[in-house]
Amino acid sequence: MTAHAAVPPIIEVDRVSKSFGDFKVLDELSFSVAPAEKLALIGPSGSGKTTILRILMTLESIDSGHIRIEGEELYHMEKGGRLVPADEAHLHRMRAKIGMVFQLFNLFPHMCVLDNVTLAPVLTKGVAKEAAKRRAMELLDMVGLADKAKAMPAQLSGGQKQRVAIARALALEPRIMLFDEVTSALDPELVEEVLAVMHRLARETDMTMLLVTHEMGFAHDFADRVMFFDRGRIVEQGPPSEIFTNPREERTQGFLRKIIAAGHRI
Ligand SMILES: Nc1ncnc2c1ncn2[C@@H]1O[C@H](COP(=O)(O)OP(=O)(O)OP(=O)(O)O)[C@@H](O)[C@H]1O
């Protein structure tokens, strides 16, 4: 789905800075994301890609700047020199808009697949158990795992676990989904099945999706826009056809040369 410039952004990152000790991870970072846009964040290790996703999820605070989700300020209370969300109610409401899937799937090991997907809507949104189960089965069907509903996580492959983690995040009906290197911990033969699910989500839903990935071929096929990050700043951004085939900046060119030299598809 292609983003439309005239529509107000669903995410605005406005001059956001963040340091860990003396190390400045994000340096006056600014970008916005349109509703339904599919955005891929690429760049060298340590450039701040995961940090910005964690900040959007309120798993990290910020030092300065603004983040607005659907026009509403995410961090606006000063606490120990950091900006944090105003209060629990505000935090809860803002978090409900965003889902995240991590590199490590973190399923609850003592619960079956169906219970893993059902738990959060019942506990955090007060959804009736039967309705949550029905929705969970639809989502498991969508990720190709309806037949594993009663399986325990330990009985699944890494790719299957990651697909359950995607279904679990979707069960909370977020408007925005963040994917942080979701295939990095998988054996190569399991990567495609997870990417196929994400492709399907990108094609068939109007969710806004932000993806941090080292899979350049996937970023190319998936994204409306690719942002190349380095040292906490955006070096260059544009449609995948431009960034991957005709990057303007020396740093982007160098990064892509290394990826190609390592034998990866772009
Ligand atoms: N909680 C933390 N405390 C201290 N340093 C941190 C913390 N989180 C991240 N960092 C550091 O911040 C830098 C940016 O990390 P980040 O994970 O955002 O990079 P990245 O671009 O996602 O890298 P990668 O592609 O390797 O995941 C790294 O040098 C990392 O070690």
Notes on the protein architecture:
The chain has 266 residues and is α/β, with parallel strands linked by helices. The chain has a domain at 109-173. The protein has nine helices and twelve strands. A six-stranded mixed beta sheet has the order 8-9-10-3-11-12, with helices on both faces. A four-stranded antiparallel beta sheet has the order 2-1-4-5, with helices on one face. A two-stranded antiparallel ribbon has the order 6-7. α3 packs across α4 (129-142), α3 (113-125) runs parallel beside α5 (158-170) and α4 packs across α5 (158-170). The longest helix is centred in the last third of the chain and has 17 residues, at 188-204. The two termini are 21 Å apart. The mean pLDDT is 92. Adenosine-5'-triphosphate binds next to α1. Adenosine-5'-triphosphate is lined by residues 20, 25, 43, 45-51. It is found in: Cell membrane. It is a peripheral membrane protein. Belongs to the ABC transporter superfamily. GO terms for molecular function: ABC-type amino acid transporter activity; ATP binding; ATP hydrolysis activity.
Strand fraction band? 15-25%
Cofactors and ligands present?
Answer: adenosine-5'-triphosphate
Tally of separate helices: 9
Biggest sheet statistics: 6 strands, mixed
Quote the distance from N terminus to C terminus. Answer: 21 Å
What is the averaged pLDDT score?
92
Indicate the percent of residues in helices: 25-40%
Shape estimate = globular
Cα-based radius of gyration, to the nearest Å:
19 Å
Protein structure class = alpha/beta
N-to-C SSE string, H for helix and E for strand: EEEHEEEEHEHHHEHEHEEHH
Lateral strand order in the biggest sheet: 8-9-10-3-11-12
**Low-confidence segments, ≥5 residues, pLDDT <50?**
none
Count all strands and give the number.
12
